[in-house]
Amino acid sequence: MAKKGVRLPEAEARDYDAEDRKRIQDDMDSMYAVPLSILPLETTGLKRARMVKNVKLQSAIEVFADKETGSGQLDVEDLPGEFDWPDDKTHPDLIIMRKLSVLQSYDIYSLRITLREHGIPVNDDVSLSLSADKQAELAGYMRSFTMPLIMQIYGSEDASIQSFQDVVGLFKDPDVKKARDKLQQMAEKLDIDLMEIPKFLEDYGDIFLSLSYYRQNMDNIMPVVNEFLDSMEGIRSNWQLRNDPALMKTCTMVENTINETCASISGRFETFNKASKSMWKNLNAERFRQVKGMIESYHTVIGGILCGLTVKMIHWKRLFPDPELGGPVRRAEFIMSEMKQGINRMRDLEQAQPMGAALDVDE
Question: Which domain of life is it from (predicted)?
Fold first, then answer.
């Protein structure tokens, strides 16, 4: 929850150390936090903070967080008072912070789109990409998307090409003729120029990495979602709580919203899978561009819903780490005070951009 009067730390006259860099990269890999150091802000004291989505799905500037003291947060509109910005004009950093605060998710794929739409620049040396560690985590998810490409182009007889990295590695192959022959084979299969292969591979890897990232986040949070939904029975069967009409109505609303949005995300993933499988039946660059465009068009919807679910479930699990701990009364209090706040935003996102039919790429 955002608190007023939290003084931001003074800027330290040192470079970011390894711990700082790890924290920043962890934020870049997350759904719900963005390090402010990636933005060209004028106010030095803001650069070590981050913007987060809190349990009410409101954006807040977090200046510190640990297990002992909790999270120290500021509302965006508190910044002028914290930094004594002049009253006669709007500070440039406040303009950026206001724009950043309305974003629905802080995952890098949503950020790429929404930062551009809102005219928010990033520092020249910042790459909006997942860390190497996160990409390694997603290797299992990526395999289902990259192996069909390999099989389409090289077939099963080429034992030297076993992964997407092997394909990319052709550009560094010391055997120039061997590498060029294979790349030419790929270009012919895709019906594109040889010089277009690097850009195609970059786009191909990135778009399916984004889908793998979202799927992993969904898989990670679903056990907690199921725990939460199972807890509804304990609340409804409690003699004290079941006679509270406002609570019962809220429980039904929250439960329905979570079920509907989870079903929506699962349905979108299924549509993407169907489109990509159809694409692989007769792969070429144009068919890939169609599927890529379709997936990208839903990044902000998927990101916003998964961000909301993730934040809600993280706070739920933190309070109730074991299904046997915390009685129904405590759980009901959390639902009424925190869980219901902002949850309608997830439903609004889904309804604003319903899933259309899968692209027909068979022709």
Answer: Bacteria
Three-class DSSP category at 53: strand
Verdict on whether the full-model pTM lies above 0.85: yes
Specify which residues 50 forms β-bridges with. Answer: 35, 62
- Phi and psi (nearest 5°) for 59? -85, 135
* CB-based burial label for 125 (10 Å; 0-12, 13-18, 19+): exposed
Residue written as token pair 């604003």? 352
Tokens standing for residue 284 = 């070429």
Q: What is the pLDDT of residues 185-230, one digit of tens each?
A: 889 888 899 899 889 999 999 999 999 999 999 999 999 999 999 9
Token representation of residue 182:
């294979």
175: left (phi over 0), alpha (psi -120 to 50) or beta: beta
What residues contact residue 141 under an 8 Å CB cut-off, 6+ apart? 211, 212, 215, 216
Q: Which two tokens stand for residue 46?
A: 């803001």
